[in-house]
Amino acid sequence: MKFLSQSANTMACASGSSTVWSLSDGYVDLPAQLLRCPNDKICTQKVSPQREESLVRLSVNCLLLDRSGSDRVLIDCGAGGSWDPSMGHLEEAMCEAGIDTSSITMVALTHAHGDHINGLLTPDGRRTFRNLSKIVIGEDAVEDFLAEPRLKDFRPLLAPIRGGDRPDDHLLAVAIPGHAPGHMGYLRSTGEDDILFCGDLIHVPGAQFARPELTWAYDADESMARASRIKLLQDAAGAHTWLAGAHLGRPGIGRIIKEGHGYAFISAV
């Protein structure tokens, strides 16, 4: 993967004929006590030295795969106006990157939590992507998506998938169970690199790469999420797969290497 450019809220890399964009929707500060040890006790380890000990800052990244300038797939779309005002800034990031929101015809969702789906609408209630024709989503995530009343008009665009399906000719859906129903990753093989858009595999990179056994209180099934993370990190390190994650520190794209009993994350920039 070759670094191309970076600005305050964007980063672009090239691989093969593809450009991968990281676009910041913002961030959210959450209690560090949400990090859990394997015995289900609160993990008291200080996870973010630059923040107050009681809070951890999660980046909210949206990833865009650009294959030709007119063939663009957005993976997750942020929080829209549904949560803190520190989020919901995807449209601004796309403008900063020079990417027209109307060029997005397909959104692939990793799961149906609000900070991944509500960006289908802007904070002031407009449709963010006026030419959107397809929303790829894990079939087990559809129920949660439909439970969000503000998104009811998007129901006809839903295209449910399972792990192993191909949403299009260039992406392979990879089931990553545990965090949420239908939690799905998307693998892009460019001929030069394998890039896994891994959703919420990691929430607190400062802790969970070194100690992948740590879970997050918002995981639907913490044991399953732990097992998924341990296996996927092991596989990614062995295969030199790039990871692009929703909550990895900006810009949220990099590789991992084995380090001690855990891993170290090497950012693309």
Automatic annotation (TrEMBL):
UniProtKB keywords: Hydrolase, Metal-binding, Zinc
Domain Metallo-beta-lactamase: 59-240
InterPro entries the UniProt entry points to: MBL_superfamily_lactonases, Metallo-B-lactamas, RibonucZ/Hydroxyglut_hydro
Pfam families, per database record: Lactamase_B
Family to which this protein belongs: Belongs to the metallo-beta-lactamase superfamily.
Identification of the protein by name: MBL fold metallo-hydrolase
Species of origin: Mesorhizobium calcicola
